[in-house]
Specification:
Blueprint (H helix, E strand, L loop, with lengths): L1 E10 L15 H17 L3 H6 L2 E2 L2 E8 L8 E12 L2 E10 L5 E10 L1 E2 L10 H9 L4
């Protein structure tokens, strides 16, 4: 693991559940996105700043492993951390648990590519981000 790890709480609204009464599988990607935003904020580099500096992090791959369902009104804890950073790519892992429980409900990661906001072509990670991550490295 590189650098920071951040956790956020999320109370499951009825709108996130399907006819079976469990969180609809696609909604976990939204939770992953929320946790990624909080991770970037914790690192000290918001997505707004990234885009203002000329780069973005689109998702190029996503993997989720569904272990156990979450239900309406569950209080979830979503944890995100940088799993790997190599070349122009970064993988951000996420784990979803019920608050206060060890059992993982869903785990996975999203892979992103650093791209220019003007050319949409891959670019190396910004030096500022690399420095922020190396200053927080706890691997």
């Amino acid at each position: 693991m590189l650098g920071s790890k951040v956790s956020m709480e999320y109370r499951v609204p009825y709108a996130d559940t399907d006819q079976m009464g469990v969180v609809y599988y696609g909604n976990y990607l939204t939770l992953f996105e929320r946790a990624r935003n909080e991770l970037m904020r914790e690192i000290g580099y918001t997505y707004r700043e990234c885009e203002a500096e000329g780069w973005m992090l689109p998702v190029v791959h996503a993997e989720l492993d569904y272990k156990s369902p979450a239900h309406y009104d569950d209080l979830l804890e979503v944890t995100a951390y940088i799993q790997e950073m190599k070349g122009v790519r970064v993988e951000i892992a996420c784990e979803v648990r019920r608050k206060g429980e060890e059992k993982i409900l869903v785990k996975g990661f999203t892979r992103h590519c650093f791209v220019s906001t003007t050319t949409f072509r891959p670019i190396p990670p910004p030096e500022r981000l690399v420095k922020l991550l190396s200053d927080r490295d706890c691997s």
